[in-house]
Amino acid sequence: MPLFSQLIRHPWTMAALGGAIGSVGRVMISSLVARWTGDQFPFGTIVVNVTGALLMGILAGYGQSEPGKLIFSEPARTFLMIGVLGGYTTFSSFSLQTFLLLEQGNLLGAFLNVLLSVLLCVAGIWAGFMLIRTLQ
Question: pTM for this structure?
Answer without folding.
Answer: 0.81
